[in-house]
Amino acid sequence: MKEKIRNILGGALPLVDLDSQFLMAELDSLDVTTIMMLLADNFGIDVDATDATPANFKSLDTLAEMVRRKQNADA
């Protein structure tokens, strides 16, 4: 899942260091919105403003965990 997210986001956000353990610090509001839309579209989940937290956007690992939680909640 993490590699799939990296591939999806890497094309849309080429200047962002996706390997950073402080990913949220690298993002502006447009980047966060882009990530939310791409994850929703690619994984068939609902991602809203309440999900755009430092805990969820800390790293690719935390983004992947958020996607897994949302997929499990929808199942």
Brief overview, please?
The chain is mainly α and 75 residues long.
List the helices and strands and how they pair.
Layout: H1 2-12, H2 23-26, H3 29-43, H4 60-74
Helix pairs in contact: 1-3
Describe what this molecule looks like in 3D.
The protein is globular, with a radius of gyration of 11 Å. It has 4 helices and no strands. It has one domain (2-12, 19-74): ACP-like (Non-ribosomal Peptide Synthetase Peptidyl Carrier Protein, Chain A). The protein is mainly alpha-helical and 75 residues long.
Report the strand count: 0
CATH class: Mainly Alpha
Report the CATH topology name: Non-ribosomal Peptide Synthetase Peptidyl Carrier Protein, Chain A
Q: Approximately how much beta-strand content do the residues carry? A: under 5%
Q: What share of residues is helical?
A: 55-70%
Q: Please describe the biggest sheet, giving its number of strands, its sense, and whether it closes into a barrel.
A: none
Order of helices and strands: HHHH
Shape: globular
Average pLDDT metric: 94
